[in-house]
Amino acid sequence: MEPCLERRARQAEPAVDRGVNDPREEEITVTESYRAIAADDRDGRIMGHRVIGRLMALALSAMLLLAACSPGAPSNAPASDATVSDAPATPAASGSETACGSSVPSDITAEIRFLTGPFSDEEQAAQEAIAAKFNEKFPNVTFTFELFDWYTSRTSVQTSLAEGAHDIYYMGEGDVVFYSADDTALLDIGPYTDDPCYAEERAQINGIDRILGMSPYPVAVPYLWFPENALYVNMDKVREAGLDSTFLESWQSFADAAVAMSDPAAGEYGIGLSLHNYVEWYGRLKSAGADWVTADGSAPGVDTPEAIQVTKDMVDLFTRKAAAPLGTYDYTTGIDAFAGGKLGMVGYDASVAGALTRNEVPFEWELHAWPPGPQSRATVLNTSSFAIGKKTPNPDLAWEVLKHWTSAEVNAEYAGKYGYFPSHQGALEGELGATFESLIPPQMTAARDELIEHGVYMLEIPEAPDMNARATPQIERAYAGEISAEEAIQNIVSIVNEVMGF
Amino acid sequence: MTSPTAPPRRRERPAPTSTSLRDRLFSSRTVDEPSRIERALYHLALIAACIALVSPFVYVISASLKESTQLFEYPPKLLPIPPYLGHYERLVFESPFPRWMFNTLFVATIVTVAKVFLDSMAGYAFAKLHFVGRNAFFLLMVAMLLVPYGAIILPLYTVVHALGIHDTYLALILPPLCNPLGVFLMRQIIMTLPKDLDNAARLDGVSEFGIYRRIVLPLIKPSLVVLAVITFTEMFMSFIWPLVAVRDQDLQVLTVGVASMRNMTSVNFGLWSAAAVLGMVPLGVAFFLFQRQFQARSIAGALKQ
Amino acid sequence: MTASSGPGALYSPGTAVTGMRTDRREALSAADHRRLRRRWIVERNLTGWAFVAPVGLFFVLFLLIPVLGVFYWSTQSGRLLGGNEFVGLDNFGRILTSIEASGALRTTVIFAVLSVPAIIVLAMVLGMSLARVKRGATIYRFFVYFPVLVPPIVIGLIWVFLTHIDFGMFNVILRAVGAEPVNWLSTTNALPVVAAADVWRSVGYWAIFFLAAFLGLPRELYEAAHLDGANTVRRFWHVTLPGIRNILLLAVLMATIWALQVFEIVLVLTRGGPGTATRTAVYYVWWYVFGDGQVGLGAAISVLLLVVILTMSIAVVRLIRVRQV
User: Fold this and answer.
1) Alpha-carbon dihedral of residues A287, A291, A292, A296, nearest 10 degrees?
2) Residue pair A218/A180 in contact by the 8 Å Cβ criterion
3) Nearest-by-CA chain C residue for B229
4) Are B178 and C58 in contact (CB under 8 A)?
């Protein structure tokens, strides 16, 4: 007989007492203990009653089922790749040359999903108010608003565009260029914007041609513009230092004023730099007459003597202890510090104006363009637009929504309330204009002409936001004294070369 | 979890002839009993550590009970009277915080329960069953223990995307199930069970699954609890995967939600600290109830030898 | 569950092989035996794999394939969901030349050097203390271990408070003793502060670890040393330390591996720090892949991380094995 069979046969033999040294005594004991355990289990003492066990299994599978069929489940995801073809949506405009009404029936039932940014702490409520007005015309359209987080916005928008998870997207200027770089993401709204029926509205929107022309094909319509990084000045502190607002007329007087307003021992500084560091340095670069690339776009344009000079000027503010050292405050704590009188000036975007007004700070403050550089007094502006995702199930309805959100009526209130300027001219005139003026912080109104006169925009190439994002840390290293201004510029040159492929 | 196998033996040295202060402080009567001064030093170190480790929490709790304006007060009060509950109210009633908490608890529970069973099954197979490729596959799994999660988020994201389960609960549940640590622990534990226990059961014709369910599982219950605790904790603390896996706000977990609060436009330290406090509650409560099992986490690492 | 079968029953996994239960000790033909054995082996394999299948499936899908995928992606360039093209080993070259990527590696290494020794030493001290005190051990253990259970994100948030220039706990204490407030998150201070946060968080975990290790040491060694007249320090150096040598090596390895992967604390506390001061490797992986659209570079850094960790682990395992024989 083969050995294994022999072994098995032996194992099955009845227990025979062979004495204490029997190696198989261990087996016998184990077998008994096993039987004891099994017997216990039969009475349900160890693993619990069988029914309970089965109930738990049932509950677990129910939970798994629930998880799979949750609202976010793929089966509920609208517009999968199969159902929406890549052919551009045929706009209804071509079919309604005679009447200029909308081709969308007013009783349409649909859902429109927004992906936009947290422009204020009441963003959700503000958007819902706008939606309520839209429902007056289209009562059966429901809205969902999702606010991305600024820090991870790129990821959110990219993935959403790829999946068709939303219909309307917020786009800053850089975003319009970035996301339209490939044509699978955003809907071509050319057929809508070129429609003669839209011409009247279009003529009233400032800057629309620039925005429409930014991308290979038109994708976005602007609804407001604002300074991306303007100077907020605590006028009380200015006066305490024995100055008035003429200190902004030259860089030298500006720097001296910042020093005069500083008291490092008391933890107070004349200016807070690099708090909202997005495009702050870019403004200085533009004021030096330079840009990321040269005018013909063939080489880096950042290493001009003037560019180095303005960078040095900024570094100087830190060296002279007029600027709060890096890391003292950041984007969120800097606003507090300004409101608390710890910083005489800060560079921030327009949203802070609304926040300062709502929180009723106890001192007088003004908004200004940055002081002059060697060539100009540049302050970087940005435009907020809306675009439509390519995978939206109902492009015509989306266009109606877009029109509503970029209309004069909506923006007179929205822009004014949160401290932005509407793009639509109609929001500045007549009754709507009066509403806007009453809502917008007076400091913004006072600064408006200055901002328009000295406003510049980020370079309109797809790589610009990337270069800006990567250049900023190098500038900060110069601020911290880690590297010199020249080195920072050199680093930025290599970044530009890398990104642009020079 | 480890204890000396023999009862402590006390071998006394002959009583010291001098009772000088120095002797009383510095000498020890027995080998395993530290001298007075030694023990005092240990207590000192521990008290210092506890102060350093606990005071930030006290500070945060105190901040969460203050209104935003009171935060800047100097000297700061430890507990404002009356305590301001507005932050907590706002957090619980007006923010997505409860939703985040629910999501996290939901996902963590499912993953924990599933992992306990799946890992013990696999551990049993690796420990007691023989099948082709057993050792190779086990080695492969153990090798992957060292893979840092942050390094594979991109391809993991692609896989999840390809399967079409991204932005669903499944995206949060399925990937963590593959952590090989659980399988490793289960195998080690099951290998310590008497060798012929299952053989004897097989003799009686019990199915393999029956052996697993009725014999192995009851015997390793303490380790199952430890595994459950480890898994639950890791689910609560995972951040980078939920950050990229799920974008829908309704599915967001606690860690990502709290992080997003940091990036809101308006500063609200009181709100943040309230969120921090509430965020620590679930694990804190679990820790209080299952102290020993939690601390076994550290010791489980020692088993990896 | 069937009753015990009589002698001569063949060992069969689960389902009885019908027709072969014999009460007669007949010799089976060789062919029959081979057939029987084959079936039995196949069933055995199937059963084994059936147990492993669920975990195995997830493992392959969500761990094995992604690891292979990282290598694939590191040779590509492009955005997150499209537009890839093969660029070979270009990305690795860029790690060396790109100002940021090389800085990331440096930052990560410096962080590890700052935090790991501090964690290990403090944990050993605390572990020893816990092993040697009798009263209050439970309470001490609770407080010491508690920070370990706080998600790193919340740790970051807490430390944002502690380090605030005006009302952060650190500066409040400094002011109370008459010292100057410190800018904790400045370019030079940020990385040490992040390291301190990590130490604060991890010390409890390793303290318990070492506690178990110390308690596991055999008493006989100590008694021998004591009789030889060794005092505490010598005892520690010559008896305790060699005894936990392997555990210590393991702890250093694991703590280092975790330190190389620091991300959440950086994200919340400093967001990459003033300038690039606290941008660590995993931070860059996340940034390149999900923010900057340079997927290949992020994957290349991941590969580098994997390789480094693997090499370190192999080295330490070798060290442990060498002495164990």
Assistant:
1) 180
2) no
3) C149
4) yes
Cβ proximity of C77 and C91 under 8 Å: yes
CB B287 within 8 A of CB C146: yes
Count of H helices and E strands in chain B?
16, 0
For chain C, counts of helices (H) and of strands (E): 15, 2
Structure tokens at C271: 């967001």
How many other C-beta atoms can be found within 10 angstroms of the C-beta atom of residue B275? 27
Cβ contact C7–A327 (<8 Å): no
What is the C-alpha separation between A496 and A502, in angstroms, rounded?
8
Q: B-chain residues within 8 Å CB-CB of C145?
A: 287, 294-295
* Crossing angle between the packed helical segments B254-262 and B221-237, to the nearest 10 degrees: 30
Q: What is the DSSP string of A294-305?
A: -TTSSSB----H
| ipTM (interface predicted TM) | 0.78
Q: Is C85 helix (H, G, I), strand (E, B) or coil?
A: strand
Cross-chain residue pair B248–A72, CB shorter than 8 Å: yes
- Residue B209, min C-alpha distance to chain C (Å): 8
| A60/B203 CB distance under 8 A | no
Q: Which of A74, A164, C65, A75 is nearest to B159 (CA)?
A: C65
Residue C97: partners with Cβ closer than 8 Å, 6 or more residues away: none
Q: Hey, are the CB atoms on B302 and C213 less than 8 Å from each other?
A: yes
Write out chain C residues lying below 8 Å of A335, CB-based.
none
What is the separation, in whole angstroms, between the first and last Cα of chain C? 45
The phi, psi pair for B121, rounded to 5°, reads -60, -50
Measured distance CA(B59)–CA(C161) in Å, rounded? 9
Is there a contact between B172 and B254 (Cβ–Cβ < 8 Å)? no
Instruction: Test C271 with A330 for CB contact under 8 angstroms.
Output: yes
Closest CA to A154 of A142, A169, A167: A169
Interface residue B164 vs chain A (CB under 8 A): yes
The CA distance from A438 to A423, in Å, is: 17
Burial of C232 (C-beta count, 10 Å sphere; 0-12/13-18/19+): middle
A197 burial level (CB within 10 Å; 0-12, 13-18, 19+): middle
Of the CA atoms within 13 Å of residue C90, those in its CB half-sphere come to 14
Residue A14 pLDDT more than 50? no
Contact A170, A384 (CB under 8 A): yes
The dihedral formed by the CA atoms of A328, A334, A340 and A342, expressed in degrees to the nearest 10 = 40
Would the CB atoms of B244 and A67 count as touching at under 8 Å?
Answer: no
Give residues with Cβ within 8 angstroms of A127, minimum separation 6: A114, A116, A143, A145
pLDDT (tens digit per residue) in A344-392: 999 988 888 887 887 788 899 999 999 999 999 999 999 999 999 999 9
Nearest CA in chain B to A27: B196
CB of C151 closer than 8 Å to CB of B254:
yes
3-state helix, strand, coil in chain B (%, to 5): 70, 0, 30
Give the pLDDT of residue C20: 47
Q: What is the pLDDT of residues A260-281, one digit of tens each?
A: 999 988 889 999 998 877 889 9
State pTM to two decimals: 0.78
Largest CA distance in chain B: 81
Which residues have a Cβ under 8 Å from the Cβ of C57 and sit 6 or more positions away?
A: none
The amino acid sitting at A238 is: V
Give the C-alpha separation, A480 to A434, whole Å: 46
From CA A160, how far away is CA C293, in angstroms rounded? 15
Could you give phi then psi for residue A304, rounded to 5 degrees? -95, 155
